[in-house]
Amino acid sequence: MNLTDSIKRPTLHEELVERLRNLVVEDVLKPGEKVPEKQLCDSLGVSRTPLREALKVLASEGFVVLQANRGARVASVTREELENTFPVLATLEQLAGELACQHLDSAEIELIERRHADMLKAYKSHDRQAYFKANQDIHQALIRGARNDILASHHKLLAARVRRARFMANLSDERWAQAIYEHKAMMELLRARNADGLGKSMKLHMMNKLSALVKALEAEDETPR
Amino acid sequence: MNLTDSIKRPTLHEELVERLRNLVVEDVLKPGEKVPEKQLCDSLGVSRTPLREALKVLASEGFVVLQANRGARVASVTREELENTFPVLATLEQLAGELACQHLDSAEIELIERRHADMLKAYKSHDRQAYFKANQDIHQALIRGARNDILASHHKLLAARVRRARFMANLSDERWAQAIYEHKAMMELLRARNADGLGKSMKLHMMNKLSALVKALEAEDETPR
DNA sequence: AAAGTTAATTATGAATTCATTATTCAGTCA
DNA sequence: TGACTGAATAATGAATTCATAATTAACTTT
Question: What are the residues facing A74 on neighbouring strands?
Fold first, then answer.
C-alpha cells in the first residue's frame, strides 16, 4: 500500500490550470478563439467554479484574455509579444547559464553531455521530434542547475508562452545547422565551467532563435496560402 | 455625464487581487498568517466566490500559499527566496537599462533627471519617504523606457514580492550613501546613452541592495530583541 | 428588402448551498 | 495526569442557483 497516494491529491482547479495551459500551448485551443465555459465544463466533466478559477490564473499568466461579461479568449501571440518575450527569456537563460556553471556537479554535467550526444544523433538522422526533446532537456537541466526556483518559474512561464511559435514556423535547415553549432560551443563552455561565456552564448542562442523565427514568420506573411 | 465610467468597471475579483496584493505587500497581512476566507469576506463585503478566485491568482503570483483543504497562508519571504529573487530582478533591470538607453527620448531623460535631483535633495534632508518615492519613480521610468511589456510585468511582480523586505530591514546610512553614489553613476551613463554600462550598473546596484539587505537581516538575527 | 428596435435566449459574474475534509474539544482509559 | 478516541464544529472545495449583461432572433417600420 502506497501511503503517499492519499497525500498528494491536487485540487481540481490546479489540474485544470495545467490541462488548459497545455491545450493553449499545444495549440488545441487556437489564439483568438472564444472559450465557452459551458462547453469546456462538459468536455472536462467539471462544474464552472473550478474552471473559472483556473481561467483567472491562466489570465494572470497571460495565456487567456478576460473581458468582463464577455468571457475568455485564448491570447494570441503577436509578433510584438514575441519580440518582447525573447529578450527577457534570453536574459534569464544568460543568468541560468552563469549560475549553472557554478552549481552543476560533474554527474549532472555528464548527464547533459549525454543528452547533447542524443541531440547530435537526432540531428544527423533528421529526427526533429527527438531533437526537440533532447534540446528541451538540455535547457531544462541548465535551468535546474541554476538552483533558483524564482528564475525557473519565470522562465517556465515565458517559455510556455512562446512555445506555440514552434507550431507556427518550422525550423529551417540553415537555422538548424546554426543551432547545432551554437550548442557545441555552449557545451564546451560548460565543460570549461566558463560561467560568463556560457551565459553570453545562451543569450545569443536565444536571440538567434528569435531572428530565425521572425524571418520565418515574415516569409509566411508573404505567402499567405 | 462621464461616458467612460460605465465602460471601465473592473470585475470584483480583479479589484480583490489588487487589494489583497497590496495588503500583503504593505505587510498588513503578515507572512505565515492564515487568511480565513470568512473573515476576509466580511471585512471586504464580498462573497467567497470572487475572493477565492483572487486567492488563486495571488497564489500563482507567489504572494500566498494554498494548501488543499487547509486554506491560504501569506507566503513568507525567506532569506533563500530573497537571494533567489534579487539576481533575477537584477538581470531584468540590466536588460531594462540597456533597452531604455536605446528608446528613451530626451524629454523622458529630462524627466528622470529631475526626479534624480529630487532624490538627491531628499537624501540631503534625510527624508527617507521622499527618497524612496523618487527612487522608485526613477526605476519605474527606466522600466517603462525599455518599451517592453513582458519585461515590465515580470519586473513588477518580482519587485512587489521583495518590497516587504524594506519593512524588515531599514536602510543604513552607509548603504544609503553608496546607493546615492551608484545612482549618480547610473545617471551619467544614461546621459551618455551608454546602454551596456547602464545595464551593468543597474544590475550591480540591485545586487548591492541585496548584500546590504542580507547584512541587515543577519545583524537583526543576532539581536532578536 | 434593409435598417433599426425590442423581445428572447444565452453566457457570464457573483451568491448561495452542499459535501467533504480539518480541527477542536470532550470524554475515556491506561 | 496524560495520551488516545471519537463526536461536534468549523473551514474548505465544488456544485448549484440567481441576477445581470451580452448576444441573438424576431419583428416592425420605412
Answer: A64
CA–CA distance, A185 with A173 (Å, rounded to integer) = 19
3-state secondary structure of A223: coil
Q: Please report which helix (H) or strand (E) contains residue B35, including its range.
A: strand B34-35
Q: pLDDT digit string (tens) for B22-63?
A: 999 999 999 999 999 999 999 999 999 999 999 999 999 999
Residue A56 C-alpha, separation from nearest chain B C-alpha, in angstroms:
7
CA dist list (Å): B49 to A16, B12, B17, B219: 17, 10, 13, 43
Asked if A18 contacts A62 with a C-beta cutoff of 8 angstroms, the reply is no
Can you give A1-20 as a three-state secondary structure string? CCCCCCCCCCCHHHHHHHHH
For residue B152, what is the enclosing H or E element?
helix B149-163
Q: Is B39 exposed, middle or buried (0-12, 13-18, 19+ CB in 10 A)?
A: exposed
C1' (D4) to CA (A63) span, angstroms:
51
Pairing of the two strands A34-35 and A64-67: unpaired
- Which nt sits closest to B39, CA to C1'? D11
E strands, chain A, in order: 34-35, 64-67, 71-74
Q: Which residues of A touch B9 (CB under 8 A)?
A: 68
Q: The pTM is what? A: 0.93
- Identify the residue whose cell numbers are 519587485: B159
Q: Please, what is the end-to-end C-alpha distance for chain A in angstroms?
A: 58
CA distance B110 to chain A (A): 26
pLDDT in tens, A163-188: 988 777 778 999 999 999 999 999 99
Closest residue, by C-alpha, to the C1' of D15: A47
Q: Which residues lie below 8 Å from residue B158, measured CB to CB, with a gap of 6+?
A: A150, A154, B85, B88, B89, B92
Give, as ranges, the nucleotides of chain D with any atom within 7 Å of a protein CB: 11-17, 21-23
| pLDDT tens, per residue, chain A with 225 residues | 333 333 456 799 999 999 999 999 999 999 999 999 999 999 999 999 999 999 999 999 999 999 999 999 999 999 999 999 999 999 999 999 999 999 999 999 999 999 999 999 999 999 999 999 999 999 999 999 999 999 999 999 999 999 988 777 778 999 999 999 999 999 999 999 999 999 999 999 999 999 999 999 888 777 765
From chain B, pick out residues whose CB is under 8 angstroms from the CB of A57.
Answer: 56-57, 59-60
* Alpha-carbon gap, residue A207 to A196, rounded angstroms: 17
